[in-house]
From TrEMBL, chains A, B:
Coiled coil: none annotated. InterPro entries: HAD-like_SerB (IPR050582), HAD-like_sf (IPR036412), HAD_sf (IPR023214). It comes from Pseudomonas delhiensis. PANTHER family: PHOSPHOSERINE PHOSPHATASE. Residues 1-26 form the signal peptide. This is Haloacid dehalogenase-like hydrolase. Keywords: Hydrolase, Signal. GO terms for molecular function: hydrolase activity. It comes from the Bacteria.
Length: 337, 337
């Protein structure tokens, strides 16, 4: 018997060689996710729906995946980045609007008067968004958004906002697309603002970005054509507005949805209420060190009812602190797994 | 010399053999189109934008093609098929609405009183459309549309409406997709009605169908979720409404557009006003024998201003009678080329 035994060192090498392909494969899939419950649930779901002949197989055309943006694909603290853009635009546009010096809420923005700005509330904020997002063509607005995105930096990380995206979610988007999914953004953000960077940053083309919308008007100025943005909200893509826009624009029910706040609850409900295997995920902001820690009491991205329903229904809740090796692409690859 | 000449019969055979691959290729592309100006313009455009390294090359992501539906992809006479559906639905739904017996415009429909129906005008028609298209879920409406499409037949051809589609346009849709185009419907038709058959008939998935829309409401009846359609128009996808919906939903400008009426003019203008090579096409209904012949004076699908502008700008105007070998898939393949 002894003579037939492979020497221990050689055994180790053989074992390693046999395992290498498996290790390589494992390393390719969602590398910034620890091998925790969320990663396992995702891989299990994706394999189930994309394995031909399997009982949960879904044909590629129906593999629709929808993602919230703020707090799900990129950070949303200390304020939604689009709001920071609107505030910066007020300052940039101020020379063309001398009246703003004495006119609230613009006066508060120009004087950095946070208290006055808060007092202006949602109504004041909407006024700021209207003034900086409408009464111009879609093309002109897109140029404005891109200019800001190319130069502005986040107050804490000092990185461009387009780098404040979640590396694990970028990997998830790619992993889904590799498995035949069509990935969509369905977000409360204004649609043209998100389209200004979604293709480059997330690989999501403009026609797969759904968001809050303003009325528009096709304008013909003696042959110079444009789409003008009007200061009138036509769709608020939050809460019940999400399944409504999914039905209106996609026209079929997603099989996977990911969000991070109560504003995503109806989208998750609508997705999981369809027949067959479905996936609902929530990014839970638990990492006060590398990102931010907030949920039930937060003004931005409150996660309360949806967290209860996720627990009750067994949806996947991603514990950012525990399950993500890396938060942002600019972080050095961590080795805590 | 004589000894070296190939015998005439053999020469013919050799020539034929050499030409076979060319013939086969030519036969594959748009076989129901005569080799006229329209087919040539289409092939020239598609080859120019899809030839890598060429000066007119357009990357696949930007190869967006938009098509009107009524009169462009399927017939629209004697009335828009969706209107025929709405009229049929009034009769089907009448038992649940005893009040309609005495109530215009429903009374006119139930009594086949065409004169009274015409007198009710656009307002009456809209009332009929609302009554048959809203106050139900998208799912229920889709079922109704599919039931009608599966059983109703056209008054003249006695064929199902989904067979009254243009064979040459089906080939064009396929040809574009083979060349990396994403094909969209952008039509005045109601979006859910078109989605009920667009994927099966045109190979165009629901998310690439854009049309006229009603307001909707996400409804939660003790856990039973639905999208309810409300009797309120939110977008009329005709005329200027077409570039507006293209901007809102696709978020980039098409490089090819096809229509057949003045309601498509702004979509063609918007498409061709973009930079680089663009294609604008109009289906001209010139075939009173195999289809219908109408343009400037027609109530349905009037083509007047757009015909002038097409002539002026050199857009492609398809002369249906001269350029299409076949109109409908159910016709026997014609041999007139």
């Amino acid at each position: 018997m002894y003579a037939h035994r492979t020497p221990p060192t050689l055994r180790w090498i053989l074992t390693l060689l046999l395992c290498l392909p498996l290790l390589a494969q494992a390393a390719e899939v969602l590398p910034s996710w620890n091998d925790g419950p969320s990663r396992q649930a995702i891989v299990k779901f994706v394999e189930a729906v994309s394995t031909e002949g399997g009982k949960d197989y879904v044909k590629p055309a129906e593999r629709i995946a929808v993602f919230d943006n703020d707090g799900t694909l990129w950070s949303e603290q200390p304020l939604y980045f689009q709001v920071l853009f609107a505030l910066a635009e007020v300052k940039r546009m101020a020379p063309q609007h001398p009246e703003w010096k004495e006119q609230m809420p613009f006066k508060a923005v120009l004087e950095n008067d946070q208290k006055a700005l808060e007092a202006a509330g949602m109504r004041g904020l909407l006024e700021i968004v209207m003034a900086t997002h409408t009464n111009m063509s879609t093309e002109a607005f897109t140029d404005n958004a891109r200019r800001w995105l190319a130069s502005a930096t986040h107050p804490r990380s000092h990185k461009p906002y387009t780098e404040m995206v979640y590396q694990p979610m970028l990997e998830l988007l790619g992993y889904l697309r590799e498995h035949g999914f069509k990935t969509y953004i369905v977000s409360g953000g204004e649609v043209a603002f998100m389209r200004a960077f979604a293709e480059e940053v997330y690989g999501i083309p403009p026609e797969q970005v759904i968001g809050t919308t303003f009325a528009t008007r096709f304008q013909d100025d003696e042959g110079a054509l444009s789409i003008q943005r009007l200061p009138k909200l036509t769709h608020n893509d939050d809460g019940a507005g999400k399944p409504e826009s999914i039905d209106a624009i996609i026209g079929r029910r997603p099989i996977l949805a990911f969000g991070n706040s109560d504003g995503d609850l109806q989208m998750l409900q609508w997705t999981t209420a369809g027949e067959g295997l479905r996936f609902a995920g929530l990014v839970h902001h638990t990492d006060g060190e590398r990102e931010w820690a907030y949920d039930r009491q937060s003004k931005v991205g409150r996660l309360d009812k949806a967290l209860d329903e996720a627990t009750e229904k067994g949806w996947t809740v991603v514990d950012m602190a525990k399950e993500w090796k890396r938060i942002y692409p600019f972080e050095q690859q961590a080795g805590n797994n």
